């Protein structure tokens, strides 16, 4: 893609002042711009995020357009999706269920920038799920000053992938609007791995100096085949990874999803330096999934609806002669989850789970410039949660062998705290530090699958359902962090070290199929990212992270938490070879081995270390643009997720990912 100025690369800045809503004093931060995304060899948001130090990615479904991929910030392994908070324009994307945020439903071309704030200080402003950090996706508003713009792009790639996207913006006086649409179809890397997806987002915005308002609507529809794992069992000389890497043991399993979202809000200037910001919205997500294993058939039909209202007040005035910024507000979320669990579609459900969850929170965060070179921030959040969970159980339903869950009606109050400091010695060197406390309440899916484990009538004996009570403890975390920022002469470096302690971390046993609270765990490490601008047309970038996640107490004390690589990093270059006509971008990523899911004992084989190289050549001529990408250039055969057997040494199920893939795209602007 062409850059804003002919022959020049987009600016890069890791300073917290660019982080808008997530600019938390004392935190380690990174910003990915729209230009970075457009030029990235990666095809998905997850691919782009994987180059940020401290982020690791897990893929279960063949990596098709990033569907089902999990972004792990600071080493949470199997439960990364519940410990990394995603925002869109400062509003929560994480739902009250376990599905996590499906980034594939956000059109890449609609993103203005992605702001990454590491560590749990974001819990003060945003509440649950911000234990590992906050990732804020800021979308384009359409207010670009041009009366009308249009963009269309189409692409073809490996595994019969076809993709197309369109966008348009219209401006007239104080009014602006933007529409983005995306369609993708692919056969997928593996058998029963096909994807069909459509998503779109539209926004209307009214802006004046004293008042701005917006209405945002989005929808998505997705069908995905679930290929399952490839089994390896040395005891019976079975190795499906070697014999049939692209095959499937679940040729009929699938997952469908339909989502509709509406958000509206306004910002009103109250007095000089003070703004009232009120947002509200509703999200509705429907999901259907069918599973047809040898001893277990199941159909799940779930609906999750979330209403929210988040008024807040921003005040930027001097206090006792010192510059001050205050952000305070109230968050209200009301979620209703209904899930029918039956043996097959259209059969009477054996379990109908109904969970209603309400959260109400108040928060305050203030930043004060105590010196021209020194900023201090502090903040607190108090959040109450009310949950009512019921299981309508039918013992006569086909295939039933479970037991009714005990009802649960509970109320609890949690709090989050933050204090941060940043001192600038000069324009080239600064230090930062922070300490914070955060929490994560169990989501509705986690409570549902505390049992029963399975339908015993469909399994050979012995089989004992695990009693269910919806009861899990709230996870808490405490962390500290410190680091430095260096910039000058085209070089920018940020490095930090952190230490985090957690209690009651929620974990899933993928063999016995239930959730439970872990003994205390410990995470610590260091993250460094750097960019070097050699010239206006050549920039180098790189990052490195050392991440340790260990059990601190209990029967696994000293062992590694599964699915966390100790070492990870990336290196890349952006080279505007010939003005804007030919541009080369390359990214190499590497990661060390990691323990398989369910291997808390650390006795099973590890997921091997590996590395990939991605290349992209792109260009623009007048209104036309094009790109050609090669991902995994050296055809590495790898996987980043696997489940270990709890009983048989060397036995595991892995989810292999594609080798070398290609993508060609072309489009034009109007």
Instruction: Specify the structural class.
Output: mainly beta
Write down the overall mean pLDDT: 88
The CATH architecture assignment turns out to be: Beta Barrel
* Tally of individual helices: 5
Q: What is the 3D form? A: globular
Task: State the end-to-end distance.
Answer: 15 Å
Task: Give the strand tally.
Answer: 37
Poorly predicted runs? 1-22, 451-462
The domain count comes to: 1
Beta-strand fraction estimate: over 45%
Q: Assign the CATH class.
A: Mainly Beta
User: Mind describing the biggest β-sheet?
Assistant: 22 strands, antiparallel, barrel
Computed Rg: 25 Å
The helix fraction, in percent, is under 10%
How does the SSE layout of this entry go?
Blueprint: E1 29-33, H1 34-39, H2 45-49, E2 55-58, E3 70-73, E4 84-88, E5 91-92, E6 111-118, H3 123-126, E7 133-139, E8 148-157, E9 161-172, E10 175-186, E11 195-207, E12 211-225, E13 230-233, E14 238-239, H4 240-243, E15 254-271, E16 274-292, E17 297-319, E18 322-342, E19 351-371, E20 374-393, E21 408-426, E22 429-440, H5 444-448, E23 475-488, E24 491-503, E25 506-509, E26 514-517, E27 521-533, E28 538-551, E29 567-578, E30 582-591, E31 594-595, E32 606-607, E33 610-621, E34 624-631, E35 642-644, E36 652-654, E37 661-669
Parallel strand pairs: 4-7
Antiparallel strand pairs: 1-6, 2-3, 4-5, 6-7, 8-9, 8-37, 9-10, 10-11, 11-12, 12-15, 13-14, 13-36, 15-16, 16-17, 17-18, 18-19, 19-20, 20-21, 21-22, 22-23, 23-24, 24-27, 25-26, 27-28, 28-29, 29-30, 30-33, 31-32, 33-34, 34-37, 35-36
